[in-house]
Write a structure and sequence with these properties.
β4 (76-78), α2 (93-105) and β5 form a beta-alpha-beta unit. By secondary structure, the protein is of the alpha/beta class. It folds into two domains: 60-178 and 286-533, Pectate Lyase C-like (3 Solenoid); 186-282, no CATH class. Helices cover 12% and strands 30% of the residues. It has an 18-stranded parallel β-sheet that branches.
Length: 548
């Protein structure tokens, strides 16, 4: 058994105080405490102020524990021992896959990349991603700096079959469990409220050996009326008009007593028996990570949205599906069409990413997931990734935190996500949203924008629920968003389509809603969060000094 201690590139002195762009954000002495926050903590009790959703459960192990810095019980599988040779002109892909396969046979391990540049996807003749299909596999480099690890994706991915849709083209690294989702569902037989931590099911046998659980409300037209809060749907929103809405959420099981299943995190949605909610075991990879690597692709075209599969997906790097308690952190991505996508996942984190070089299609996207944290990201590409940090497709209870896309905006890519937070984001636009118009609206209730800093042109009378337009895309559509502390470039709203608006043009306290809610729930700020902020500030400062 080998002990592997995480090696971090030496950083310059880390400032004791962590701040957010002190030159541009108002001093704390000039910021006032938000009224909606006071309502949340019980300091005030104003019935006119809506109750904030508790977003603090987002992230690796629900924000309660930090991602490990050491992995004492993981054997190390050095890619050089399997034939990889850095800094030459030959492909290292087979050697990398062989090291991964060996780690999987060992029931887990660190797949380690010593310093140097490794080549993958060299002159491919078919779509051939590197695959990881087991838990406890960590791809670890020697840092993303000049003397660290670079994985160079020499050529773009190919379509798996002729005319494959551009969004289905493989990413370079694919993480997914081989075991399929269970189809043995059980009806939920007791109503429950959002915030409860227990459900009751008609049969308990499917869950006796399960660690994770998926709760689903089938598409329902009656539920859609409630979800839209009385708002009129656009006529071409086929899914919501013809099928209604569906809700899906994932949880980790704490324990089982009789037919009751107790959860480690609270319900995101109300469970109404009339809507036939069901539960089934959820298979996920756990303790999977990617860290301390520079991923270099070679996308050099001026990006054109949906031009072809090459522009949209073929230079994309990490795709994770069905993850729990997993992560990507401390990585750099250059000349890519997409950095990281995570789908059907739970309680995982995407943290500390630097994106540079030629801009492409996507930054990050969390889709069909519950309680995923995306944060501490800086997009320094020449034109900005077309879509910024994103949450879409039934994603709920998730957070985008301290992300900078100064040339673009964040994204909600439609298909009715719910109860998500955009916290301390810096972007030039309100959003750069996407998604097929038939799958709109872009977001249901529970979207909170907290201390959003706009750095682009003035926007007047921004409307979150337009009911007319020149084509089928009539603009961003959100049910009653909560907007607190939006500042920077002048922005005004059609306030009849805003659920709650406070301190427009003024930074508020607490600085970060995610951090404040996590501290409030746990009675103190977790050590991992403070360390992550310090580490990211040093990394970001070092990188920006290098560029200047």
């Amino acid at each position: 058994m080998l002990i592997f201690v995480l090696l971090i590139n030496a950083c310059e002195t880390i400032p004791k105080k962590v701040a957010v762009d002190n030159q541009n954000i108002p001093e704390e002495s000039r910021a006032r405490e938000s009224m909606i926050w006071k309502n949340y903590t019980g300091e005030t009790d104003d019935p006119k102020i809506p109750k904030l959703f508790d977003y603090s459960y987002a992230g690796y192990k629900r924000g309660e524990h930090g991602i490990p810095e050491t992995f004492e019980y993981h054997a190390v599988f050095n890619v050089m021992d399997y034939g990889a040779i850095p800094n030459d002109t030959l492909s290292d892909q087979e050697a990398i896959q062989a090291a991964i396969n060996a780690a999987e046979l060992h029931q887990g391990g660190i797949v380690f990349f010593p310093p140097g540049e490794y080549l993958v996807n060299v002159s491919p003749i078919k779509s051939n991603p590197i695959t990881i299909t087991s838990s406890n596999i960590i791809l670890k480099g020697s840092g993303w700096g000049i003397h660290g690890t670079t994985i160079n994706m020499k050529d773009h991915m190919l379509q798996s079959y002729p005319d494959q849709e551009e969004w289905k083209v493989n990413y370079m690294f694919k993480f997914y469990p081989v075991e399929k989702f269970s189809e043995d569902a059980a009806l939920i037989i007791s109503s429950a409220k959002a915030g409860d931590d227990v459900i009751e099911v008609a049969k308990i046998d499917p869950f006796k050996d399960a660690k994770f659980i998926q709760l689903t409300m089938p598409y329902n037209l009656e539920a859609a009326k409630t979800a839209l809060k009385g708002k009129e749907a656009r006529p071409h929103w086929e899914k919501v008009n013809e099928k209604g809405v569906t809700f899906i959420e994932f949880h980790e099981i704490d324990h089982i007593k009789g037919r009751r299943i107790y959860l480690k995190d609270p319900l995101i949605n109300d469970i109404n028996l009339a809507y036939h909610w069901n539960a089934k075991p959820y298979t996920a990879l756990e303790n999977v990570g990617v860290e301390d690597i520079h991923f270099k692709a070679n996308f050099q075209d001026e990006y054109i949205h949906h031009k072809d599969f090459i522009h949209d997906n073929a230079w994309s790097i990490i795709a994770m599906s069905k993850m729990a308690n997993s992560w990507v952190r401390r990585c750099r991505f250059s000349n890519i069409t997409g950095a990281v996508v995570m789908d059907n996942s739970h309680a995982s984190s995407i943290l500390m990413l630097m994106i540079d070089g030629n801009a492409g299609h996507k930054l990050t996207n969390v889709t069909k997931s519950s309680r995923v944290l995306t944060g501490l990201i800086n997009d320094q590409t020449n034109n900005g990734q077309f879509h910024g940090a994103a949450m879409s497709h039934w994603t709920s209870g998730s957070v985008i935190w301290r992300v900078k896309t100064p040339k673009q905006g964040w994204d909600s890519h439609a298909d009715i996500p719910k109860n998500n937070l955009v916290d301390l984001y810096e972007g030039s636009k309100m959003t750069n949203h996407g998604g097929f118009y038939k799958n709109e609206p872009h977001h249901l209730e529970g979207l909170t924008l907290w201390n959003y800093k706009r750095v682009g042109d003035t926007i007047n009378n921004y409307d979150f629920w337009k009911l007319s337009g020149k084509d089928m895309y009539w603009g961003f559509s959100v049910v009653n968003p909560i907007i607190v502390g939006l500042h920077g470039s002048t922005t005004t709203f059609n306030e009849k389509n805003v659920g709650y608006l406070e301190s427009l043009g003024e930074f508020v306290l607490p600085e970060s809603l995610y951090e404040a809610q996590l501290k409030y729930r746990m009675k103190k700020t977790p050590k991992w969060l403070l360390e992550s902020l310090k580490q990211w500030q040093a990394m970001e400062s070092k990188w920006l000094q290098k560029k200047s």
